[in-house]
Design goal:
By secondary structure, the chain is α/β, with parallel strands linked by helices. The chain contains six helices and nine strands. It has helices at residues 13-24, 36-49, 64-76, 103-129, 150-170, 203-214; strands spanning 4-8, 28-33, 54-58, 81-86, 132-137, 175-182, 185-186, 201-202, 224-227. The strands form two sheets. A seven-stranded parallel sheet has the order 3-2-1-4-5-6-9, sandwiched between helices. The termini are far apart.
Length: 234
């Protein structure tokens, strides 16, 4: 029976690229996103390309009860968990003092609480296995303040803090934790904007760094991955 790679926000961008990479390594996939049609398309494409099974579930990760239900769905599969990629997130530009009321709650719920609740749901399984690898998709915004970062930056700073804490808590159980901090990456967030795609990183490059970190021996952990466009931040 194949091990599982779990990816949130799995149908586009970095999430989709991570799914492809782990499927190519023979891991079964558990994928979630909000759009059922996109999930069905992902399942069809990946299963027709790789000899793996793709389990899908529509989830709005900003809602705690849906995240917890997703965790129970994963555990019901009764397969060893190799990887959890907490990738789902939302970016709405704005400044802390001027952004629309409710932006902090929206981005913290989506970007931070989703990863917090899903990790808490699945860590007991990994502890029993004495292995597993958690990737938290943070951001350059986790370490660098910038104009119009606002609540997004706050949520990603917190995501990095959670990753560091998890790393210390779980290392004795053989569970690796990696914080991934990509700079500007060409995903759906940039579509429609007047910018040269070559100025941005490719989602596949971020996913390749995740796979590379995962494939290291169990005695080694890449704690932080920082990636930026060659010409620097935007």
């Amino acid at each position: 029976m194949n091990q599982l790679a779990i990816v949130t926000g799995a149908t586009k961008g970095i999430g989709r690229a991570c799914v492809e990479n782990f499927a190519s390594e023979g891991l079964d996939i558990v994928a979630c996103s909000r759009n059922s049609d996109d999930l069905e398309g992902l399942k069809k494409d990946v299963e027709s390309t790789y000899e793996v099974t793709v389990h899908i579930k529509p989830v709005d990760v900003s809602k705690k009860e849906e995240v917890l239900s997703f965790g129970e769905f994963i555990k019901s599969l009764d397969q060893s968990i190799a990887v959890l990629v907490n990738n789902a997130g939302v970016f709405i530009p704005g400044s802390v003092h001027e952004e629309e009321d409710g932006m902090l709650e929206k981005m913290v719920e989506t970007n931070l609480y989703s990863a917090y609740h899903l990790s808490r749901s699945l860590v007991p399984v990994m502890k029993r296995q004495k292995k597993g690898h958690i990737f938290n998709m943070c951001s350059i915004a986790s370490i660098t303040a910038y104009e119009n970062g606002g609540s997004y930056s706050i949520s990603k700073f917190a995501m990095l803090g959670m990753s560091k804490n998890l790393r210390e808590e779980l290392k004795e159980f053989g569970i690796r934790v990696t914080a991934v901090m990509p700079g500007a990456t060409y995903t759906a967030s940039w579509e429609g904007l007047d910018i040269d795609p070559n100025r941005l990183m490719k989602a596949e490059d971020v996913a390749n760094s995740v796979l590379s970190a995962h494939k290291m021996s169990n005695g080694t952990v890449v704690e932080d991955i920082v990636l930026r466009p060659q010409l620097g931040d935007l």
